[in-house]
Specification:
- There is one protein chain.
- The protein is an all-alpha fold.
- The chain is built from 18 helices and no strands.
- Helix 7 crosses helix 11 and helix 17 runs antiparallel to helix 18.
């Protein structure tokens, strides 16, 4: 194990010394100008669809009227922010959003890492490809269809309740109208749908680990578990740190597609989140200024969370584990 640690430290030192500066990166872009030109459509699309729409955030500070347009609508300052923060159910909306997001982060985030680690240990290539295919497939099924399957399975007269009643003699359960069981279904189905796809980035990071590290550890007599703990996990720590920061930044954004297609009036108390509120206010009531203010609030909170999580990770671990 000492050989593996020394080799990893030397590799890391060389990587730090060889890290390109801004001027070196700029020279590289100019030198390979043909490849740089290929980036222009991507940059243009990013500016048009990601940055240009930011101009319409002004709607949050205006009494927006479609007929008058963005510039013709009167300014109202912080009126709409005051309205959303004094909204009677706002605290419940924020609590539900953060609670569901934390559960997804606490269970879904490590599930993808553990799955990637286990999948990497499979040596039979045919079986490994089969497992990968089966676990990736749910990601490509839209939530409208996936929610329909879940509702059919867990409704009062669904398959699960039929099995409980016919084979176990139990009373049917109200999975979809009980607050606790509904949240469990939300988190469980989200992990099932996204775990395989989320593991791709970790499998790619594991594939990039120098095999000489494993050989050195094997010579030192390290077991398979020890190699995972001492080599694999530390080697993919930068990827884990970056994905964690990005997921923390989305803490105020629950999985809207999933919740919107699964929830019902009986579970509003625990399942009504900011995104569903925005849809109700924006689409059904056409309160565009209020929903824009809510979106801006979510964006600011997400930005602050990214800054804080990046700062904490940078201070508590290696700087390479953070975004900057």
């Amino acid at each position: 194990m000492e050989i593996a640690k020394e080799y990893k430290a030397a590799t890391k030192a060389r990587a730090i010394r060889s890290k390109p500066t801004f001027l070196q990166s700029l020279r590289s872009l100019v030198k390979h100008w043909q490849l740089s030109l290929m980036l222009l459509p991507v940059v243009a699309a990013f500016l048009i669809f990601s940055y240009f729409p930011l101009l319409w955030l002004l709607i949050a500070f205006k009494d927006y009227n479609i007929g008058k347009g963005l510039w013709g609508s009167p300014w109202v300052g912080w009126k709409h922010f005051h309205m959303i923060f004094t909204y009677p159910d706002m605290l419940q909306l924020i609590r539900n959003t953060v609670f569901i997001s934390l559960l997804n982060l606490g269970f879904g985030f490590p599930a993808a890492i553990l799955f990637a680690l286990m999948l990497n240990e499979i040596k039979h290539s045919a079986f490994k490809r089969t497992v990968q295919t089966l676990t990736y497939l749910p990601y490509f099924i839209p939530w409208t269809i996936m929610a329909g399957f879940i509702l059919l399975l867990f409704s009062v007269d669904g398959l699960i309740n039929n099995v409980l009643v016919d084979y176990f003699g139990l009373d049917p359960k109200n999975f979809l109208t009980n607050n606790t069981s509904f949240i469990q279904l939300l988190i469980g189905s989200a992990i099932w749908k996204g775990m395989g796809w989320s593991s791709i980035i970790y499998l790619a990071a594991i594939a990039g680990v120098n095999p000489q590290l494993y050989e050195a550890a094997h010579i030192d007599g390290a077991s398979r578990l020890q190699r995972i703990v001492s080599i694999t996990i530390p080697s993919i720590a930068p990827v884990i740190g970056i994905t964690f920061i990005l997921q923390v930044g989305g803490l105020m954004s629950s999985n809207f597609d999933q919740i919107y297609n699964m929830y019902n009036a009986q579970v509003y108390k625990v399942a009504d989140v900011i995104d569903t509120f925005v849809v109700r206010m924006g689409v059904t009531q056409m309160q565009y200024s209020i929903t824009t203010a809510m979106g801006l609030f979510k964006g600011v909170v997400g930005f602050i969370l990214i800054i804080l999580s990046n700062y904490i990770i940078r201070k508590t671990s290696d700087s390479e584990n953070s975004l900057w």
